[in-house]
Amino acid sequence: MNKINYIELNDKIVFEVIPERSDISNKGSFGKLLNISGSYCMSGAAVLSSLAAYRCGVGLVSVACPQSAVTLIASGIREATFLTFPEIEGRTDAASASKLIKEKIGRFSACLVGCGMGNTPETENIVSCIIKNASCPVIIDADGINSICGCADVLKEANSQIILTPHLKEASRLMQVKIDTLFENKIKFSQKFVSKYNVTLVLKDSHTLIFDPSGEIYSLDYANSGLSKGGSGDVLSGIIASFAAQGLPALKAACCGVWLHSEAGRRCAEQLSKTSMLPSDIINKLSEIFKENSR
Description:
Elements: E1 7-8, H1 11-17, E2 32-36, H2 43-55, E3 60-66, H3 70-74, E4 81-85, E5 87-88, E6 91-92, H4 94-104, E7 110-113, H5 121-133, E8 138-140, H6 143-147, E9 162-164, H7 168-175, H8 179-184, H9 186-197, E10 200-203, E11 207-211, E12 217-221, H10 232-245, H11 250-272, H12 279-292
Parallel strand pairs: 1-12, 2-3, 2-7, 3-4, 7-8, 8-9, 9-10
Antiparallel strand pairs: 5-6, 10-11, 11-12
Protein backbone atom coordinates (compact mmCIF):
# COMPACT_ATOMS: atom_id res chain seq x y z
CA MET A 1 0.00 0.00 0.00
CA ASN A 2 1.36 3.41 -0.93
CA LYS A 3 2.17 5.78 1.90
CA ILE A 4 -0.07 8.83 2.03
CA ASN A 5 1.85 12.09 2.06
CA TYR A 6 0.10 14.74 4.09
CA ILE A 7 1.01 18.40 4.06
CA GLU A 8 1.02 19.40 7.72
CA LEU A 9 -0.55 22.79 8.31
CA ASN A 10 1.46 25.47 10.08
CA ASP A 11 1.50 29.22 10.57
CA LYS A 12 3.87 29.81 7.66
CA ILE A 13 1.52 28.15 5.18
CA VAL A 14 -1.40 30.18 6.50
CA PHE A 15 0.10 33.65 6.70
CA GLU A 16 1.76 33.35 3.31
CA VAL A 17 -1.67 33.21 1.65
CA ILE A 18 -3.83 35.49 3.84
CA PRO A 19 -4.15 38.70 1.81
CA GLU A 20 -2.56 41.89 3.09
CA ARG A 21 -4.92 44.75 3.91
CA SER A 22 -4.46 48.08 2.22
CA ASP A 23 -5.35 51.21 4.17
CA ILE A 24 -6.77 52.63 0.93
CA SER A 25 -9.91 50.54 1.11
CA ASN A 26 -13.58 50.25 2.04
CA LYS A 27 -15.79 47.41 3.21
CA GLY A 28 -16.24 46.27 -0.37
CA SER A 29 -12.49 45.75 -0.64
CA PHE A 30 -12.64 42.78 1.71
CA GLY A 31 -15.55 40.83 0.37
CA LYS A 32 -19.21 40.39 1.17
CA LEU A 33 -20.48 37.20 2.82
CA LEU A 34 -24.04 35.95 2.65
CA ASN A 35 -24.53 33.81 5.76
CA ILE A 36 -27.69 31.73 5.45
CA SER A 37 -27.81 30.40 8.98
CA GLY A 38 -29.84 30.27 12.13
CA SER A 39 -33.43 29.63 13.13
CA TYR A 40 -35.67 30.53 16.05
CA CYS A 41 -34.31 27.69 18.20
CA MET A 42 -30.70 27.91 16.98
CA SER A 43 -29.95 31.60 16.63
CA GLY A 44 -26.51 31.25 18.21
CA ALA A 45 -25.13 29.41 15.18
CA ALA A 46 -25.70 32.46 13.01
CA VAL A 47 -24.18 34.75 15.63
CA LEU A 48 -21.03 32.68 16.12
CA SER A 49 -20.38 32.08 12.42
CA SER A 50 -20.94 35.76 11.58
CA LEU A 51 -18.72 37.06 14.38
CA ALA A 52 -15.97 34.61 13.38
CA ALA A 53 -16.19 35.79 9.77
CA TYR A 54 -15.93 39.44 10.80
CA ARG A 55 -13.02 38.72 13.13
CA CYS A 56 -11.12 37.24 10.17
CA GLY A 57 -11.44 40.35 8.06
CA VAL A 58 -14.45 40.12 5.77
CA GLY A 59 -15.91 43.52 4.91
CA LEU A 60 -19.62 42.75 5.25
CA VAL A 61 -21.78 39.92 6.56
CA SER A 62 -25.45 39.70 5.65
CA VAL A 63 -27.37 37.10 7.62
CA ALA A 64 -30.28 35.48 5.81
CA CYS A 65 -32.69 33.80 8.23
CA PRO A 66 -36.38 33.30 9.07
CA GLN A 67 -38.21 36.44 10.17
CA SER A 68 -38.80 34.95 13.64
CA ALA A 69 -35.05 34.66 14.28
CA VAL A 70 -33.94 38.16 13.26
CA THR A 71 -34.32 39.84 16.66
CA LEU A 72 -32.55 37.00 18.44
CA ILE A 73 -29.60 37.01 16.03
CA ALA A 74 -29.38 40.79 15.87
CA SER A 75 -29.10 40.95 19.65
CA GLY A 76 -25.87 38.96 19.41
CA ILE A 77 -24.18 40.77 16.53
CA ARG A 78 -24.44 44.49 15.84
CA GLU A 79 -22.34 44.56 12.69
CA ALA A 80 -24.43 42.33 10.41
CA THR A 81 -27.16 43.29 7.97
CA PHE A 82 -30.14 41.00 7.35
CA LEU A 83 -32.19 39.35 4.65
CA THR A 84 -35.38 37.86 6.06
CA PHE A 85 -37.28 34.80 4.89
CA PRO A 86 -41.07 34.81 5.19
CA GLU A 87 -42.66 32.01 7.21
CA ILE A 88 -45.87 30.04 6.87
CA GLU A 89 -47.21 28.52 10.09
CA GLY A 90 -43.83 28.76 11.75
CA ARG A 91 -41.83 27.25 8.86
CA THR A 92 -39.66 29.02 6.32
CA ASP A 93 -41.42 29.65 3.04
CA ALA A 94 -38.82 27.88 0.89
CA ALA A 95 -40.22 29.18 -2.40
CA SER A 96 -40.01 32.81 -1.27
CA ALA A 97 -36.58 32.22 0.28
CA SER A 98 -35.26 30.69 -2.94
CA LYS A 99 -36.61 33.59 -4.98
CA LEU A 100 -34.89 36.07 -2.67
CA ILE A 101 -31.61 34.13 -2.84
CA LYS A 102 -31.67 34.12 -6.63
CA GLU A 103 -32.21 37.88 -6.63
CA LYS A 104 -29.46 38.69 -4.11
CA ILE A 105 -26.73 36.02 -4.41
CA GLY A 106 -24.92 37.88 -7.19
CA ARG A 107 -24.05 40.72 -4.80
CA PHE A 108 -21.87 38.50 -2.62
CA SER A 109 -18.34 37.13 -2.94
CA ALA A 110 -19.06 33.99 -0.88
CA CYS A 111 -22.00 32.19 0.71
CA LEU A 112 -22.12 30.14 3.91
CA VAL A 113 -25.18 27.96 4.41
CA GLY A 114 -26.39 25.47 7.01
CA CYS A 115 -25.36 26.56 10.50
CA GLY A 116 -28.35 26.11 12.81
CA MET A 117 -30.95 26.00 10.04
CA GLY A 118 -32.54 22.70 11.05
CA ASN A 119 -32.59 19.56 8.92
CA THR A 120 -35.88 20.15 7.15
CA PRO A 121 -37.27 19.94 3.60
CA GLU A 122 -37.10 23.74 3.53
CA THR A 123 -33.37 23.62 4.25
CA GLU A 124 -32.86 21.08 1.46
CA ASN A 125 -34.70 23.32 -1.00
CA ILE A 126 -32.67 26.38 -0.01
CA VAL A 127 -29.32 24.56 -0.14
CA SER A 128 -30.14 23.09 -3.53
CA CYS A 129 -31.11 26.54 -4.79
CA ILE A 130 -27.78 27.98 -3.67
CA ILE A 131 -25.74 25.16 -5.19
CA LYS A 132 -27.48 25.58 -8.53
CA ASN A 133 -27.47 29.38 -8.67
CA ALA A 134 -24.36 30.69 -6.89
CA SER A 135 -21.40 31.85 -8.94
CA CYS A 136 -19.40 32.65 -5.78
CA PRO A 137 -17.76 30.06 -3.48
CA VAL A 138 -20.26 28.20 -1.26
CA ILE A 139 -19.40 26.77 2.17
CA ILE A 140 -21.87 24.12 3.35
CA ASP A 141 -21.93 23.08 7.00
CA ALA A 142 -24.05 21.25 9.56
CA ASP A 143 -27.74 21.11 8.56
CA GLY A 144 -26.78 22.21 5.08
CA ILE A 145 -24.80 18.97 4.76
CA ASN A 146 -27.45 16.85 6.46
CA SER A 147 -30.13 18.17 4.13
CA ILE A 148 -28.41 16.87 0.98
CA CYS A 149 -27.24 13.51 2.31
CA GLY A 150 -29.93 11.76 0.29
CA CYS A 151 -29.39 13.84 -2.85
CA ALA A 152 -25.65 14.53 -3.01
CA ASP A 153 -25.76 14.48 -6.81
CA VAL A 154 -27.07 18.03 -6.64
CA LEU A 155 -23.42 18.97 -6.07
CA LYS A 156 -22.77 18.09 -9.71
CA GLU A 157 -24.95 21.05 -10.68
CA ALA A 158 -22.70 23.58 -8.94
CA ASN A 159 -21.23 26.44 -10.96
CA SER A 160 -18.82 27.54 -8.25
CA GLN A 161 -16.31 26.24 -5.72
CA ILE A 162 -17.93 24.18 -2.97
CA ILE A 163 -16.43 23.59 0.49
CA LEU A 164 -18.04 20.99 2.73
CA THR A 165 -17.17 20.86 6.45
CA PRO A 166 -18.60 17.65 7.95
CA HIS A 167 -17.61 15.84 11.11
CA LEU A 168 -17.34 12.08 10.80
CA LYS A 169 -20.99 11.30 11.45
CA GLU A 170 -22.16 13.86 8.90
CA ALA A 171 -19.58 12.58 6.42
CA SER A 172 -20.74 8.99 6.88
CA ARG A 173 -24.29 10.03 6.01
CA LEU A 174 -23.11 12.11 3.08
CA MET A 175 -20.96 9.32 1.65
CA GLN A 176 -23.51 6.60 2.46
CA VAL A 177 -21.01 4.52 4.44
CA LYS A 178 -21.01 3.29 8.04
CA ILE A 179 -19.10 5.56 10.38
CA ASP A 180 -16.75 2.79 11.57
CA THR A 181 -15.91 1.93 7.98
CA LEU A 182 -15.27 5.56 7.17
CA PHE A 183 -13.07 6.00 10.23
CA GLU A 184 -10.87 3.13 9.09
CA ASN A 185 -10.78 4.30 5.47
CA LYS A 186 -10.91 8.12 5.59
CA ILE A 187 -8.52 8.60 2.69
CA LYS A 188 -10.22 6.16 0.34
CA PHE A 189 -13.76 7.41 0.77
CA SER A 190 -12.90 11.09 1.01
CA GLN A 191 -10.73 11.12 -2.12
CA LYS A 192 -13.42 9.25 -4.01
CA PHE A 193 -16.05 11.76 -2.88
CA VAL A 194 -14.10 14.94 -3.76
CA SER A 195 -13.14 13.47 -7.13
CA LYS A 196 -16.74 12.53 -7.95
CA TYR A 197 -18.25 15.87 -6.94
CA ASN A 198 -15.33 18.27 -7.53
CA VAL A 199 -15.52 19.76 -4.03
CA THR A 200 -13.14 20.63 -1.22
CA LEU A 201 -13.80 18.56 1.90
CA VAL A 202 -12.83 19.45 5.47
CA LEU A 203 -13.20 16.22 7.44
CA LYS A 204 -13.34 17.38 11.05
CA ASP A 205 -11.95 15.16 13.79
CA SER A 206 -9.15 15.19 16.37
CA HIS A 207 -6.99 14.65 13.28
CA THR A 208 -8.59 16.95 10.71
CA LEU A 209 -7.95 16.29 7.03
CA ILE A 210 -8.60 18.60 4.09
CA PHE A 211 -9.16 16.99 0.69
CA ASP A 212 -9.19 18.74 -2.66
CA PRO A 213 -9.87 17.54 -6.22
CA SER A 214 -6.23 18.37 -7.01
CA GLY A 215 -5.27 15.35 -4.91
CA GLU A 216 -3.54 17.36 -2.19
CA ILE A 217 -4.30 16.40 1.41
CA TYR A 218 -3.62 18.84 4.22
CA SER A 219 -3.47 17.60 7.78
CA LEU A 220 -3.75 19.01 11.28
CA ASP A 221 -3.23 16.47 14.04
CA TYR A 222 -4.12 18.27 17.25
CA ALA A 223 -6.68 16.88 19.69
CA ASN A 224 -8.44 19.43 21.89
CA SER A 225 -11.51 18.28 23.81
CA GLY A 226 -12.29 21.93 24.49
CA LEU A 227 -13.51 22.14 20.90
CA SER A 228 -16.07 19.40 21.59
CA LYS A 229 -18.85 21.85 22.32
CA GLY A 230 -21.83 23.03 20.33
CA GLY A 231 -20.89 26.10 18.32
CA SER A 232 -17.25 25.25 17.61
CA GLY A 233 -18.10 24.08 14.11
CA ASP A 234 -20.05 27.26 13.42
CA VAL A 235 -16.95 29.28 14.31
CA LEU A 236 -14.81 27.22 11.93
CA SER A 237 -17.28 27.63 9.09
CA GLY A 238 -17.41 31.38 9.61
CA ILE A 239 -13.62 31.62 9.47
CA ILE A 240 -13.38 29.60 6.26
CA ALA A 241 -16.21 31.58 4.68
CA SER A 242 -14.50 34.86 5.58
CA PHE A 243 -11.38 33.95 3.63
CA ALA A 244 -13.38 32.61 0.70
CA ALA A 245 -15.27 35.94 0.60
CA GLN A 246 -11.93 37.78 0.59
CA GLY A 247 -10.89 35.92 -2.53
CA LEU A 248 -8.85 32.93 -1.38
CA PRO A 249 -9.37 29.75 -3.44
CA ALA A 250 -11.35 27.02 -1.70
CA LEU A 251 -8.39 24.91 -0.60
CA LYS A 252 -6.44 27.86 0.81
CA ALA A 253 -9.52 29.24 2.60
CA ALA A 254 -10.12 25.83 4.18
CA CYS A 255 -6.49 25.48 5.27
CA CYS A 256 -6.42 28.96 6.84
CA GLY A 257 -9.67 28.29 8.64
CA VAL A 258 -8.66 24.94 10.07
CA TRP A 259 -5.27 26.15 11.35
CA LEU A 260 -6.56 29.41 12.86
CA HIS A 261 -9.46 27.64 14.55
CA SER A 262 -7.11 25.07 16.04
CA GLU A 263 -4.50 27.60 17.15
CA ALA A 264 -7.11 29.85 18.77
CA GLY A 265 -8.56 26.78 20.47
CA ARG A 266 -5.15 25.76 21.76
CA ARG A 267 -4.63 29.19 23.30
CA CYS A 268 -8.08 29.10 24.89
CA ALA A 269 -7.33 25.72 26.43
CA GLU A 270 -4.07 27.00 27.88
CA GLN A 271 -5.66 30.10 29.35
CA LEU A 272 -9.13 28.88 30.32
CA SER A 273 -8.84 25.06 30.37
CA LYS A 274 -10.41 22.61 27.95
CA THR A 275 -13.31 22.22 30.35
CA SER A 276 -14.28 25.88 30.60
CA MET A 277 -13.41 27.34 27.18
CA LEU A 278 -16.33 28.31 24.95
CA PRO A 279 -16.68 28.63 21.18
CA SER A 280 -17.04 32.40 21.62
CA ASP A 281 -13.65 32.42 23.35
CA ILE A 282 -12.12 31.02 20.16
CA ILE A 283 -13.37 34.05 18.25
CA ASN A 284 -11.85 36.42 20.80
CA LYS A 285 -8.45 34.71 20.53
CA LEU A 286 -8.29 35.24 16.77
CA SER A 287 -7.40 38.92 17.15
CA GLU A 288 -4.37 37.96 19.24
CA ILE A 289 -3.10 35.67 16.48
CA PHE A 290 -3.59 38.29 13.78
CA LYS A 291 -1.86 40.94 15.84
CA GLU A 292 1.21 38.74 16.29
CA ASN A 293 1.35 38.10 12.55
CA SER A 294 0.41 41.51 11.20
CA ARG A 295 2.34 42.77 8.18
